[in-house]
UniProtKB/TrEMBL annotation:
This is MSLNL protein. It comes from Ptilonorhynchus violaceus. Residues 499-526, 541-618 are annotated as: Disordered. Pfam families: Mesothelin. It is found in: Membrane. PANTHER family: MESOTHELIN-LIKE PROTEIN (PTHR23412:SF15), STEREOCILIN RELATED (PTHR23412). The gene is Mslnl. GO terms for cellular component: cell surface; membrane.
Amino acid sequence: AQLSCLARLLAAKNLTGDFSSFPPDLLLFFDPSEVRAETCREFYARASRGNLDLLPRGSSRRTRLLRGALSCLGVRGRRLEPPQLLSLGALVCDTEPGTIPASHPAVLENLKLCPALTGAQQDALNALLLTGHTKYGDPSSWDLHTLQDLGPLVLALNQTTLGLVAEAAREDFRRSIAAAYSSQGHSQREKSLILLRAFAAASASSHPRLKRSSDRCESEPITASSIADPLLLLNYNTEQFDLCLSNEVLIENLEALVDLSLPTQYLQVLKEKLDRIFPSGIPEEQLKRLGPVSRLYTGEEISRWSVASNTTLAALLSPSGGEWEDSQVQQLLSRYLALGGSLTGPLLQEIGGRRLCNLREEQIQQIPAEAVGTAGQLNISSCSQDKKEQLYRKAREAFASLAGTPAKYYCRIWPYLGGAPAEDLKHLANAGVAIDMDLDTFLALNPEELQKLSVTDVKNLLGENLPELKKAENEPAVRSWVKRQSQRELDCVLGIGLQGGLEEPTGTPTPPQPPTSASATSTATTSPAVTLLTTLLATSSPSAASPSSVPLPAVTSRATTSAGVGTNPAGATHSTSTPVPSPTSAPAATLNTNTPLPNPSSAPAATHSTVSSVPHST
C-alpha cells in the first residue's frame, strides 16, 4: 500500500519521466498510462526485475502491467522474440501457456525467473523441451550439467520428460546436490530439499512399481541414521519405503520422519502403517506426533480420536503440520469439546476467527470469557450476527476492567464490535476520548444498530477517520443511515459532503412574534384601556386637571394591534391617532404611538380620584 501511494505521489509531481533511480519494486505500482512511449522499453525492462509477488497473480494491476509491456514492445501474436523477451523478464510468467511453445526457445530463461508455474504452463514447458529444439537438446542426451543448467525448471519436468533422462545423469544430479547441501545456508537448504523431494517423486513415478507379491525390502532397511539423510527418498519409491520401514523404527522416529516434509504419497504410507499398528484407534500420545499425517484423516476418522487435553489439540492445530480443511477442524473441535475439553486463548489463536465461526452457537457458548480475553485479535467477520453478538458479550466481560480507560478498552474490544448494541456504541462515542475507529470496523458494525446512532455519535466514533466515511457513502448500511438523518445536521456536524438526508420542511408560515412595549400600538376600537380612559374622562369634574395634562397609562402587550399598523423600512412605527372624547372645556386627546408612552410609575398623581384609580394594564 505504501509503494502504491508513493507511486501515485511521484506521478502527481510529474517525476515519472526519469525512473532510473527508482527501485524496480516501486515501478510495479506505476500507472502504465503514465509511462512515456519513448522510454517504455527501458521502463518495463527495469520493472520486470521487481518482485512480482508484491502484486497478486491475476490482479488488475498486474494484468495492466503485462498488457502495457506487450503493447510497448509491439507484440501482436503469441510469439515472443529475444529482444522482447529481454525486456519482459519475469513478466513472461503471466503470459498464456500457448505463448511458451510458440516463442523463441530463449523463453526458457525467462521461465526460470518464475516462482511457480501453473499446470498448463508446465505442460507447455515440457512440450517445448521434448521437441529437442532448445539449447538443452533432446532429453535423452542430458547429463549432469544439463540438469544443473535447467535449474528450477527441473521441478516442472513430468514423467515423460524425466523418463528419457539417463539413470546415470539422475544419480549424478542427486550426488551433486548432496555434496553442496552441508555448506548451504538455511534458506538455500530449504530450496534444495524442495528440489530433491520433487525430483525424487518424479523419479519414483518414472519407475514401474514393484509387485507386491515380493513382500520384501530390496534396498537397505531404513534406520534412524538413514532418516537423517535429506536425500533418503531418492533411494526408495513408495512401495519400497513401506517395505523397508519397520513399525519399530516408525514409532521411534515418527517426528523425524514427518519433519522431512515428505510428499503426500509417502505420508499416505505412514498413515496406513499407523492404522495397521493401532487398529483400535491411535492413542492420544501418538496424536500429538502426527504432524502433516493428521491432515490425511477424514472427519469420520477424527471423530473417533481421543483428543482430551488442550496440549494434544494445540499440537494437532499447529500450522507446522500444514493446512486443515474446515470440516476437519469442525470435527476435531467437536470431539474435543464432547470429551470435556475447554477452549483457551492460545487454542482460539490456533483455531482462528474464521474457523471459530464454524462452531455451533452452543459450542461458542462453552468458551470462557477469559479465553476470549487472551486470544488476541480474532477476525470474526465471517460469523453470523448471532455468533458475533455471543462473542461480543464474552469480550465485553473479559475487558470490563478496562472500561475506565476508553482508549485501551477500544484497542482490545474492536474486533468484536460487530456484535455490539447501539447503546454500547453510544457509550463508546461519548466517552470523552478520541478512539478514531477505522472505516472497516465501522462498516462491520451491525447494520441495524448502526441506524440507531446519531450524527454526533458517528462523528465521535470515527474521529480523525471521519473523511473516510465519504468514500463509503454508497455502502447499503451507510446509505440507509444517511436517509434517516437531517441533511442540515449532516452538513453542519459532519461537513464531509454526504447527501440524501432529510430536508427541512419549506412553505410553512412563520408564527407571529409577541410585540414589545417599544413597538406595540393601539387603536380606539380594540384597546380596553383606551375605552376605560375615555369613559372616565367623560364623567370627570370641570375642575379636574385637563386630560391633556394627565399622563396616559402605558399600553402593554394586552392591546390588540390594528391590521393597519406597520413598520417602515427605517424601523419607525406608523402613527394611528384616535380622538378621545372629553368634556367640552377640554381639547380632544390624541394617542400618538410615535411618541414614547410614559411609565406609570414615574407619572404625577392625578387629582381626580377616578383617574388615579385606573389600573395598570400590564
